Structures are given as C-alpha cells and as structure tokens.
Amino acid sequence: MQQALAERERSALLRKRVVIDSNHQSVIEVAGEHYISFSSNDYLGLSQHPDVLQSFAEGLSLYGASSSASSVVTGYSIEHKRLEDDICTHTNMQSALLFSSGFAANQAICKTLFSTTNKRSQACHILADKFMHASFIDGAMGVSANAQFSRFKHNDTRHLLQLLDKVPSNEDTLVVSEGIFSMDGDACDLTGIQQQIKERSNNVWVMLDDAHAMGVLGAQGMGTCDASDADAQKVDVLMGTFGKAVGTQGAFVASNSALVEYLVNFSKEYIYSTAMPAAQARATLTSFQIMRKGMEREKLRNNIALFQMLATEAQLPLMDANGPIQGLIIGSPEKALALSEKLKSLGIWVIAIRTPTVPKHTDRLRITINAMHQERDIRALVDALVLAMSSMEK
Ligand SMILES: Cc1ncc(COP(=O)(O)O)c(C=O)c1O
C-alpha cells in the first residue's frame, strides 16, 4: 500500500481530501479562506433551495433521520413511492426504483442483469462508450466472465456499428452511453445510437446514464430524452442521479416493469442495503418539481453562455461542450495541479482532474458553472484563468 501511495505521490497523482468548513451560494471556506467554487455538481443550486430544505426538515420530523431497513423490509415509504411515480410520469417509463447512490445503481444493473446466477442459454454483450463513468465500467468488468464487454470509441456511432455487426443477431446486447459525459462535458449522440440499432432492436437495449443531464437538459429538465427528438421509448434503461443538478443524494433506475421487478428481487445492491432516508426522497421530489419550472436552468444557461463568450474572447482553449461541465486540457498532472493551486491563490476553486480518472496526457481543469454564480464570479474566473495560464507559460 505504501509503495502504491508513494508511486502516486511521485507522479503527482495522489488524491487528498480537503475539509470544507462551509459552503454557501458557491462560496466555500477552507482553512479560514474563502473561494468561489467552480467544482460543485450542484448545477442548479437546488441543494440550498429553501423549499428543498423545508421538505427535508418535514421529512425528518415525519420519518426520522434513517429509513432504518432495506426497501424489501420496512425501509420503503410513501415518500419513496411518490418519487418513483413522479420519475415514471415525467420520463415515460413504466417503472422506477431508487438506490442510495448512482455508483450502486450502475453496479446493480451490470451485476444483476449479467450475473453468474442469471443462467443464460446464449452469450450476451455490453457495448459501452469508452468514456463511461467508473461505476459502470467497474460493474461491467466484474461480469465479463458472463457478458462480453467491449467499448466503442467515444461518441463514435460508426465504431458502435462495427462492434454490433460482430454480434450474432440472436444474442442480447446492452448499448450504454452517458447523457452528458462527466469529465468531458459533451453530450451523447442518442439519435445516432438509435439509428445504428434500428435494424436490430429486438435484441439490443439502450441504456443511458443521465447523471449529469438530469435537471440540465430538456424543457422540463428530465434529461437527454426530454431534450432530444429521439423516441424516449428507445431508451430501455434510464439511470439518473440526485447528487448533481437535483441537489440531493441517491439515484434511480427507470425501465420496464419486468426489469425493475427483477432488480427488486435479485439486485444485492438493492436488497442488502438500507433504503435512502424517506426525508431525502421527499426533498428530492420537491427538487424535481422546482427543477421542472426551469428558472434555475435558464440562469445556468445564461451563465454557461457568458463563460463561453468570455473564455473565447480570452482565447482559452476550452473543450467542445455546451453544458455546465467545461474543461481545459492541460496535459500533465503536475501542470494541472500547479494551475489549480495558482487559481486558489486568486480566490478561485477549480479542481485538477488527473489520470486515471481521465486518459493519460489529458489531465485537465474541470470547471463547473452553476446557476448561483454571479456575473462577477464568472468574470473573476476567466481573469484568473488567463493570469494563471500565462504565469505557467513563463
Ligand atoms: C456519470 C456518472 N454516473 C454515476 C455516478 C455515480 O453517482 P453517485 O455520485 O450518486 O454515486 C457519477 C458520479 O460522479 C457520474 O458522474
């Protein structure tokens, strides 16, 4: 362990936690200093919305701080059920169920659908975008003895087709992508994916991890399907998380009733884990209701547009993304860390994302814009980026 840690330290890849003393409206306090944070996934600022906080408080007084049991014992309350029903109504899915985290949800999908106990008469396949989140990749690798797991080049539907062509037409395939990619911030080509599978739709299911698109995309903020012309029914499995734009914590999987019932009966992540607190489910439902009105989304869009305009004027080499996740590739972990430190000295908190979270030589600054940022915050960010980057060149 010590060797591995020392190796990480030598390569400027060691992760360290930072104690946040307070967090208010995108200003965080660390060791007595205040910073404007551009590293939170609370894209709409809903984690601090008074109505969400009030729902949480009501839930706590009605149900206590814990759900106190698994969902299949006594942990499943009317608040969980209401939230699931609301998700189904607004995503056009038959059925939904809640998990304590998106990580658990992705693991559950892979392990339950493709586990060794699930005896299949024929081979099955998982074809996932190369840039899928670690929670899915890890789950898919864990079942590779049972399902052939391949990755198509990022957002490359022609490569997806080449892989699909190698799959015998009678074998089941799960094609997986992300609504907005967590580290690159670009959106998946759902329509392109659907076109590729049209001919084969009997045996190919499409799954979307919409963690970063929930709340951000669509007229109602219900994510990629809400925003796209693509037929919502063509997404067979939809995963969304609450810990980002929704502003609470946990996740859902929505699909047809058979798949959801199957997870309730066979997913170890679901059965052998305490259900999320009912208060959290209640607050999450309130959050969805606020989210659908769209006020915060409008602010977020304006802030993203302002940042992109100022960054382009300043000739900052932004990655190609139109959502709240904006990246600047730096290329080495040392440089990315040094830039992040320089930004801190200017009162701006932007985290350096390094390999192995992102591919080698694409170490970067991951900047997240949110609806709470003021114009002056975004101007301060761009000024600080220009200063920090020019000081690095010297
Ligand atoms: C794309 C994606 N999927 C899944 C997860 C896991 O969600 P959670 O944080 O709720 O465990 C994340 C979290 O970073 C994510 O970015």
Automatic annotation (TrEMBL):
UniProt cross-references to PANTHER family, sorted A to Z: 8-AMINO-7-OXONONANOATE SYNTHASE, CLASS II AMINOTRANSFERASE/8-AMINO-7-OXONONANOATE SYNTHASE
UniProt entry tagged with the keyword Acyltransferase: yes
Record domain Aminotransferase class I/classII large: where: 34-385
Keyword Acyltransferase on entry: yes
Catalytic activity: 6-carboxyhexanoyl-[ACP] + L-alanine + H(+) = (8S)-8-amino-7-oxononanoate + holo-[ACP] + CO2
Subunit composition and interactions: Homodimer.
InterPro entries per record: Aminotrans_II_pyridoxalP_BS, Aminotransferase_I/II_large, AON_synthase_class-II, PyrdxlP-dep_Trfase, PyrdxlP-dep_Trfase_major, PyrdxlP-dep_Trfase_small
Pathway(s) the chain acts in: Cofactor biosynthesis; biotin biosynthesis
Gene3D superfamilies for this protein: Aspartate Aminotransferase, domain 1, Type I PLP-dependent aspartate aminotransferase-like (Major domain)
EC number: 2.3.1.47
Enzyme class: transferase
Name by which UniProt lists this protein: 8-amino-7-oxononanoate synthase
Keywords, sorted A to Z: Acyltransferase, Biotin biosynthesis, Pyridoxal phosphate, Transferase
GO BP terms: biotin biosynthetic process
Cofactor: pyridoxal 5'-phosphate
